[in-house]
Design brief:
With about 140 residues, the chain is an alpha+beta fold. The chain folds into 2 domains: about 55 residues; about 70 residues, OB fold (Dihydrolipoamide Acetyltransferase, E2P).
């Protein structure tokens, strides 16, 4: 889910909560009924769940790449399907085969000026078979 979609979902949830709260005007001398207390509990639980989901999306990033692997003089590289970038693969690359479409988990190494993109592989998640088009060698 992209940041734009998360923002839209968060705004929709806030609007839905505001509509339910504004549906009944409060009176100064009214005592809350049992159903009012239940709805307040439901509202608090929904807000808590929304905050939990929002924090999960904000903190948790997808650290995986899917693409075609190719062998180079310096090791393996992966032509990513998502962002169309080429990454040098480092770390646990023992199961990687050239010409295979794979998904790997790990973390992207911080890019310094002029350096190629690098992805440190922690786990080879899945083999999808051979690539339809072989990636070009650099």
């Amino acid at each position: 889910m992209t940041a734009r979609h998360r923002s839209i979902c968060a705004k929709a949830a806030v609007c839905a909560l505001l509509v339910t709260v504004a549906a009944k005007p409060a009176a100064a001398n009214s005592i809350p009924t049992k159903s009012d207390v239940v709805w307040i509990g439901v509202g608090v639980a929904a807000i808590g769940a929304g905050i939990g989901v929002g924090i999960n999306f904000a903190v948790h990033h997808s650290h995986s790449l899917t693409g075609c692997a190719a062998s180079t003089a310096n090791g393996f590289q992966l032509q990513s399907e998502g962002d169309q970038q080429t990454y040098a693969l480092l770390g646990e690359v023992a199961g990687v085969k050239s010409g295979e479409r794979i998904r790997v988990s790990g973390k992207q190494e911080k890019k310094s000026a002029g350096a190629s993109r690098q992805f440190i592989v922690e786990k080879l998640n899945k083999h999808f078979g051979s690539c339809k088009v072989q990636p070009a060698a650099p």
